[in-house]
Amino acid sequence: MAGASEYVIDSFPVAVCDNIRISRCKLLKGKQWRGKQSSMRRYFYGVKVQMMINAQGIPVEFGFVPGCESDVQALKKLPMAVAPESKIYGDSAYTDYLAEDDMKQAELIDLMICRKSNSKRPDEPWIRFIKDYMRKGIETAFSQIKALFLRKIHAVTFKGFLIKLVLFILAFTLDKITN
C-alpha cells in the first residue's frame, strides 16, 4: 500500500430498461431495482455504480448495487482498500456521522463529506470550497464513462449486463492510464 492519498467517491445510475418497459423486463425483477436520480428528477430501473477515483481521475474501486439502495448503504459495501491517513471526498448523500467517526478512529481515513446547510457538523467556508473542488473530477469521469456507452446496452442476462458495464469502466481506465 502506498502512502496517503486523496480519493473521491460517488455513484451514477445505469438503467436496464425504460420506465415504460419495466413490466416486460426480463433481466431484473423486483422493486429493489427502481431508483431515483434526484439530480435529473427522474426514476430509473437498474443498478447504481459506486465508484472511487483517485486525484488523477483513475477509477480505483467500483461496485454495483440495486437502484433503490442509498449511497450511505453502498459505501459500507466497498472494500475501501486505501492507505491510512487518506482522504475520501463525497457528496452529501454519504452523510453518516457514525461511519465517519469509525473510519477515522479505526483506519485513520478521513471521510470528507459535503455538508448540507442544516448539518449538525457544518464546514468552514474554505473546507467547503476544497470539498466542492475535489468532487468535480468524479462528475467528469462519469460523463466520460457514459460517453462510451451505447445508446442502449443490450444484454441477454443480468451477468452479461454487468460484464459490459465492467468493460466500459475498464476501457475508460485504460484510456486514462495511457494518456
Cα-based radius of gyration, to the nearest Å: 17 Å
Tertiary shape: globular
The tally of domains stands at 1
Q: How far is the first residue's CA from the last residue's CA?
A: 24 Å
Count every helix, treating DSSP H or I runs of 4 or more residues as helices.
4
Largest sheet: 6 strands, mixed
Oligomer: single chain
Residue stretches low in confidence (pLDDT < 50, at least 5 long) are none
Question: What is the total tally of β strands?
Answer: 6
In summary, what is this structure?
With 179 residues, the chain is an alpha/beta fold.
Structure write-up:
It is built from four helices and six strands. By secondary structure, it is of the alpha/beta class. It has one domain (6-178). It is 34% helix and 25% strand. Strands 1, 2, 3, 4, 5 and 6 form a six-stranded mixed β-sheet that branches. The protein starts with 5 loop residues before the first strand and ends with a helix. It is globular.
List keywords for this structure.
6 strands; globular; alpha/beta
List the helices and strands and how they pair.
Elements: E1 6-17, E2 34-37, E3 42-54, E4 59-66, H1 71-75, E5 87-90, H2 97-107, E6 110-113, H3 125-148, H4 158-178
Parallel strand pairs: 1-5, 5-6
Antiparallel strand pairs: 1-3, 2-3, 3-4
